[in-house]
Amino acid sequence: MNSVRPLRQLELPGVPDTVDTTRVVEQMVRRASSMGFESWWRRAESVGFCAQPIQLVGNDEYGREQVVWTRCNNRRAQVCPSCSDLYARDTWQLVHAGAAGGHHGMPTAVADRPQVFLTLTAPSFGPVHTTTTAGDSTHKHGVCRDHHRIGGYRRCPHGKPMWCSTTHDQDDQHLGQPLCQECYDYVGHVLFTWHLPELWRRFTITLRRALRKELKAAGVDPDVVRVSFIKIVELQARAIPHIHALIRLDPHDDPDQTDWESPISAGELATTIQHAARTVTLTVNDPRAETAERVIAFGTQIDTQPITPRSDPADQASPEKNSTIGRSLPGRRVARYLAKYVTKSLADLGISARRLSAEAIPDLDVSEHVRAILASISVLADSGLTEIGRWLHTLGFRGHITSKSRRYSTTMTALREHRAAWTREQQLKISAYQHDPFQNTGGVDDLVAWAFDRAGHISIGDRTLTITAALRRIQQRRTAREALQQHRRAPLIEVPDG
Ligand SMILES: [Zn+2]
Ligand SMILES: [Zn+2]
Ligand SMILES: [Zn+2]
User: Fold this and answer.
1) Domain spans of the chain, in order of start
2) What is the pLDDT of residues 268-279, one digit of tens each?
3) What is the whole-number distance in angstroms between the Cα of residue 457 and the centre of ligand 1?
C-alpha cells in the first residue's frame, strides 16, 4: 500500500489517530522532567504499568491523606497491555496447575489422572474464506476452496463463486468472511452464539451421565469419579465463539488422594466426550416465527486429545489420530495456547469494549460480515429476543471467557491475593529500611477506609509513558521465554482453528 496519505504524525502506543500527538509528547516530557517523577514512576510500577489504574484515597489514623493505585484488571490488550498480559499469565498458571499439579495448592497426583484436551467448534453457517482445509484439523495451509474439492466452478443462487483459489495469509482480512453474505445463515450464527453457554452446560450434564452409565455397566460404583474442567472461549475468524477445554477425572471424595487409579482411561474419556459432544442438542424457537424451531448443536469438527503419561505408550493412541503428547507437554503447551486465546479481543474485529446501540451499526468501522451479525442481533432483539440487544458489543455472546468447575484448579482471585500478599511483603521489606517500620505498613493499609478517587491517568502523556513501559516489559519477558523454549526444543501440538 503506497497510497499517498497526509503526513502522519508520530505513532504512539495506545494513542488513537484522532489525538494530536504533539500535545501528548509535551505531556510526556513535562512528566519526565517534573519534580515528582520518581514517586509517580514508582506508583505506576507498583501496578505493573497498568494503563487505567484505579486511584483510591483515604486518611490514615493520623489524618494524613494516603493515595494508592490498583490495577484495572482488564482482560483486553486493547484497553490495558499490562493487565491483559497478567491475565494471560494467570490463565497459564490456572491451567498448568490443573494439568500438571505441584503448585497453587494442586497435588502432583493430578498429572496422573485421565485428562483430555477438547476443542468444540460451531457448525458451518455457510462457506467462509479459510486457511484450513475443511474437515482437516491439522491446520494445513493451502488453497482456500479448491474447485476440485467442491465439485467444479460452482456458483450460488446469487451468482457468487463458491470456489476460491487463493492461499490466504494468517492476517488476510478475507479470512472468516462468507463467500456469499446472502447465503450465509446469520440467524443460525447468532442463535448458536447466544445459546452456546446453555449448550455447554448440557454437554457437561450429558458427559457426566454417560460416564456414570459406563461405570455402572462395568460394575463400578458410579460415584467414585468426579469430572473437573476448565474451559476457555475463543472467537474464531468467522466471528463465532468456539470452546477449548481441559477435562479431568478425579477421585470423588478426596481430590488430593495420591494412590487413586481411575476406572476410566484417558482414551476412553476422549471417546465418551466425542459422543457426548456429537449428540447434545438444544431446541429453541426462532424468534422471528413463533412456530419455527432451531436445533442448536456443535459442529462436526470436534477434537479430543487424550493426555496420557509418557510411560504408557499403549494409551497414546487417540481415537481420532495419533497424539504424541507426552505428560510434560500439555501442562506447558496447552496452558500457553489457552493463555493466548483469552486476551484475543473483540477489538480485533473493530468492536470496542463499550456497549453498542443498534443505531451505531451502520457507522461502525467493521467488516461487512460483522455488520451483518450485528444487524441480525438487532432484528432478533426486535422480534422478541429483547435481551440479546444488550449484547451487541460481544456479538451476542453472554457467557464467561474463562470458566472452570470448582475443583479443577486454583482461582483467579486466589492468584491475585497471593500476588498482593507477596507485593505487600516485598514493600514491607523495602520500607523497613527506609522508614520507621511502626508507621509504614507498606502497600494498601488495611486500617485506612479507601474511597474511589478516579480511574485512569490524568493525561494521555502519562498513559503513553506507562503503556510504553508495559510493552517493553512484555517484550522482555517474551524474549526470555522464547530463548528458554529454543533451549528446550519441545515439539508443538496443533490445535484446530477456523
Ligand atoms: Zn490495567
Ligand atoms: Zn478464500
Ligand atoms: Zn449466495
Assistant:
1) 81-125+185-410, 126-181
2) 999 999 999 999
3) 11
